[in-house]
Amino acid sequence: MITEKSELKKHIMGCLVGIAAGDAMGMPTSMMSPSTIRQIFGEYVTEFLPAPKGHVIHDKMIAGQVTDDTQQTLLIADSIIENGEVNPEDIARRLIKWSEEINTFGTMAVGPSSLRALYGIRAGKSIYETGSVGDTNVAVMRIGAVAIYGKGEIERTVDAVERACIPTHNTNIAIAGASAVAMAIGCSINGEEDIDVIIEKALKAAELGMSRGNIWYSASIIERTKLALNIVSKNTSREKIVQELYDIIGAGVQISETVPTCLAITKLTNGDVVQAIQTAVNLGGDCDTIVAITGSICGAISGIDKIPDNWIKLLEKVNSYNFDEYTEKLYNAIY
Ligand SMILES: [Mg+2]
Fold this sequence. Notes:
By secondary structure, the protein is an all-alpha fold. The chain has helices at residues 5-26, 34-41, 68-83, 88-101, 104-107, 112-122, 127-130, 138-141, 144-150, 154-165, 172-189, 195-209, 221-233, 238-249, 255-268, 273-280, 287-302, 309-319, 323-334. It has a single domain, classed as Orthogonal Bundle (ADP-ribosylglycohydrolase fold), CATH 1.10.4080.10.
């Protein structure tokens, strides 16, 4: 277990930058199939690129620019920094404010679960009702700061995830998926280095998460993660594994696709943050979110020292972020 302050901060910052790096590098290749990515970009994408002209959701975005995944993660980080805890009412307020700022209600910039819930909250419904059918990977993509808050302790993590999910994703499947990723991040920040143990702990948290929230229908995260890990363990090339993950596990917005795929890429790349991000970018599908989540887990495992300086500089410049400051504030609010 890591107890030294400077070491913890390196892994906290690795997680935060991992989300932003994954989000921004996956931005141009999202909403495509792996073969379309190859057609458009000519080869494997391994760097930050602008969105290709006419991109279905990211048109006109520039190289290194992040999307809603990082924005919502930092919005929840701000809430934790200000409140010293995971407060569902405050998160709901911030989500509404953010949605109005980016004109979500006019442009459909967020997914169906969030939009339905945010409309409800804005109309005065209780936040304990609005998230009752939210089942998409938005619950997972923004869980980074909550994961840091959870400290890799299973009960603390799942409790915190449940509170964060209440306004828009208060279902067993969303809480389970977000708990799995939060646990993987939390135990990695606190010093767990064995990928198999990290995934095992993630699945334990998913199991506990399934007992929370409104019961909703979904394929099993746990069983599909085992299936995804089987694909990785088969002795085939990385290209074949990525294609099989895309074909069999899926890269869509369903949590039972997203979480198993992200955990499988973590295993495939042995948690190496740069390799994991560069591999996931070429998967296509809901790529910005899948790479952001994979980046958050592997950034927590690798720590900030393994993320290239020029990546951090570009992300901070393009998005006006200061990751050092965020890390310091989050650390002080949580530890
Ligand atoms: Mg996004």
